[in-house]
Amino acid sequence: MPFLWIIDITGRKYRLLRGKFLYKIQYHKKFHENNINKLRLEINDSFKKGIEPKLNGRKYMNGILNFNETEKTLTVEPLVTINELIEFLDKTNFMIPCMPRDTNTTISEMIEYGCIGSDSKRYGLFHHTCLEYEVINDDGKILVASKLQKNSKESHNALFYGIPLSGQSLCVLLSVKFKLIEKSNIIKITYFPVEKNDVLDELKKICSNGIDKRYLDILNVDNQIFIFCVGELVKDNNNKIIINDSWRDNYYECYRKKKEIMKYMTLKGYMYRDEEKINERSGLRKTISKTFFNVKQINNTYLFPLKHTTLMLDEMTKLKLNPKWLTLVNIPSLPGLLRQREGKNCYFVAVNVFDEINSFELKSFREGLMNFEKMFIEKNGVGLINNHTTLSQKTFWLMYDSSFYQWLRARYVNNFIRKDVYECQVIKNRLD
Fold this sequence. Notes:
Layout: H1 2-24, H2 27-48, E1 64-68, E2 73-76, H3 82-88, E3 94-95, H4 107-112, H5 120-123, E4 130-136, E5 142-146, H6 157-162, E6 172-179, E7 181-182, E8 186-195, H7 199-208, E9 215-220, E10 225-234, H8 247-257, E11 261-266, H9 267-271, H10 278-281, H11 283-292, E12 296-305, H12 309-318, E13 323-331, E14 346-357, H13 362-378, E15 382-384, H14 393-399, H15 402-412, H16 421-425
Antiparallel strand pairs: 1-2, 2-6, 3-7, 4-5, 4-6, 8-10, 8-11, 9-10, 9-13, 12-14, 12-15, 13-14
Helix pairs in contact: 1-3
Enzyme class: oxidoreductase
Keywords: Membrane, Oxidoreductase, Transmembrane, Transmembrane helix
Domain FAD-binding PCMH-type: 59-183
């Protein structure tokens, strides 16, 4: 359906050009306070009526507020997308850490529901790179939750660690300040095939090599052969590097030849690597499939301790789940909602389960997903639930620190119409 892609790409280009122009005239910075006031009125009015606010006033909060090259930080509103940030930073020496493969993802989604990237081996989840959140609470007060001012009464340091992965169950994001990382515009990628039973050993080797290689993508080709794609940023000083930005051609060449190969891509081409196919670029196509053809898209990421890699991959094959993409994640020893049941500063393997299920397949798929989610929780795993899940309330709270969360709810949430984190993340995504 090429026409759907044309509509999508035209809309995307318009939004990108509009975003650059509005930043140039400082539009979002000038009207940020006005948008907050509109949102405050909406929240107060909704709670008076006894209903949860729909946050319609936040839909205009999609701009870039401040770019500080000296501090290497970016401050943005919550609904700005990765697409817009890629284009904004294109001519600079900086990029976003822990970038999702879906470039339509917003900053708000990356924080409220969790986000990893191919560089999460070095940086953890995206929220581990954040420095400050500006939020509005149920009373309409503006709070600044900061990582840096730990001893200040106004820093709301505990709230800073509670916001990530909480959905919108504690407060509403107004802006986010996060670190940028330096970049070069070319990435050298080494592709090599690994059999499923050897994936764990190969991951251990990569862990032991430290963080020299920034990027790691592991692609499941046929449930038996996994293509490891290990990338590092390089400079083309002599303009002699041959560039090939076709991500699929590169890793399928490795799969066909069954041997290690090396390719160079532009960094921008790598950022958009999972959007080469028209079907995958088109958000409109996904909406039409969901609305008119009753197709459910499963796109969840599960993190489990490194030592359980072989067991989990075998279980997914048996249950006919599709582990599309894997990478390593280092979850740092920091406060937060996640229970550190496995220990501190441990490596996890992130597995992205992706599939499109029609109504005839739904029952058997649901049973398989339920069995898998039960097992990964038993193995001290963590789920980043994007859209569909079978988790019960009991199993969900095995992942989360309920005492810390309830303390935050008691301190910052005054209106119990607001959904809790289980309702935000699971109930609305229940796979029935």
